[in-house]
Amino acid sequence: MNRRLILTALAAASVAALTGCAGPYTVSADVSSYGAWPADRKPGSYAFDRLPSQQQNDEAAKRQSALEEAAKGALERAGFKPAADAKSADVLVTLGARVTAYDPVPWDDPLWWRWRGRLLSPRYGYVGRGPWGWRHDPFFDRRYDRAVALLLRDRATGEALYETHASNEGMTMGSEALLTPLFDASLAEFPQVNPKSHRVSVQAIR
Q1: So what's the pLDDT on residue 125?
Q2: Cys bridge to 182: 79, 85, 143, 148, which one at CB 3.0-4.6 A?
């Protein structure tokens, strides 16, 4: 059985930083969006709206501040501008993020019937028999699903206008630096709506 760990915010985790030389790189994410943004409505001004659970204590508020900082660039690239305060904003923005960790097992593979004796080792994880003897099999490494969500509401009426989700998978939990490109991917097609999950790639800077 897969073991799952859900975190309320990616920024809450102590994680391995993205490595490599400084410079642009591509981040791909699976994106889905919902709503009916009015065709004649401009993006306008925005303010962040925190749920009670996102401000219940200093730690929760700190995590949420990190999310908001990561989403600012994506919102502005989509045409939004920060409002002086929540009362004067055209839209209110609610954010969320999570990481789900899972351990693959042989029957997760649609071709698991081809299983050839991979065993669970307490020290080395899953290993398999190969031409060079027993070796570690990367197929069985823990994977992480990293996801962000963003909801735009009309401040005056409270109507939900646009909801979008973006997620990708990797061998590590990722770092706070991954939040920004995930939010970029989530708003890359704004105001178009496409509820079917599809791949979107964006440029990011290390």
Answers
A1: 45
A2: 148
**What is the rounded distance in angstroms from the CA atom of residue 6 to the CA atom of residue 72?**
24
CA distance 198 to 50: 28
22-45: average pLDDT: 92
What is d(CA 168, CA 99) in angstroms, rounded to the nearest whole number? 10
Helix, strand or coil, per DSSP, at residue 54: helix
CATH match of 5-13+24-105+116-205 with 3.30.160: yes
Beta-ladder partners of 168:
146
* Stated pTM of the model: 0.71
Which tokens go with 134? 């027993």
What is d(CA 48, CA 91) in angstroms, rounded to the nearest whole number?
9
Hey, is 190 helix, strand or coil? Answer: coil
Among the listed residues 137, 135, 184, 144, the one whose alpha carbon sits nearest the alpha carbon of residue 164: 184
pLDDT band, residue 99 (cuts 50/70/90): confident
Q: Which residue has the higher pLDDT, 118 or 201?
A: 201
- Nearest CA to 152 out of 60, 83, 55 is that of 83
| Domains of the chain by residue range | 5-13+24-105+116-205
Nearest-angstrom CA–CA distance, 15 and 13: 6
Tokens of 28: 């791909």
